Amino acid sequence: MQKKLLLLGILAAFWACQPNTETNSEKQEKIDPATYWGENPWPEIRKKRINQLLPNALNNAGVDVWLVVCRENYNDPIATHVGGENASGTAAFLFYNDESGFHSLVFSPEGEATALDDLDIHEKVERVPRGESAVAKAVELIKSKGFQKVAINSSASNEMADGITHSQYQELAGLMGSDEKKLVSSDELVYEWLSIKLPEEVEILTKAAQLASDFQHEAYAMIEPGKTTDADVAKFLKAKMAEYGVTDA
Fold this sequence. Notes:
Oligomer: single chain
Order of helices and strands: HHHHEHEEHEHEHEHHH
Shape: elongated
Number of helices: 11
Structural class: alpha/beta
Radius of gyration: 25 Å
């Protein structure tokens, strides 16, 4: 009896390690990413994150205004979160609370201002004439408002809060003059903002986690001990990601 049970156990283990051909066959059906995921939710999520979550993040971090500088080719890591991912000339984004509420204001080169305004993310997009500085315009407003703590993306520990370049900082410091001491790291602000998720984001993250789990199980199923290499598994997973229209997080 014990021998029979041992044999059945070995067979069960063997079958468990075999590729699930039925499942793989079903999974080989072509996936249309646009149909699977639906309309891209990011534009609306981004707008909600700015208008609903950022005001509290500013208060919790104890800063008066947040200045984000975006430009072509060497963009700030936070750019996609504020609508500056397509910047060509230098643009300055300002976020602040005052007695009338929360405000998001962008100083953008006039050649790009219309496209940015059409995204309908920000309260106002100010056009900056050619030859003038968006950062200088932002500093003018900062000084006129009398802000005491100006958060900029400079951090030794958080890459998402470390997007300002040395030359950008030099320009900003020069424009701030004696008020340079008011510049503080956006480290805490960025943490406060990005760590909170909207219900829509939680739903997407849940779906992404399930998809990752499905990919993992399919990868295990295609492995043949002694034959399948790490490169084979990586190739399989990259193909699955391409099929579903997803990228690395």
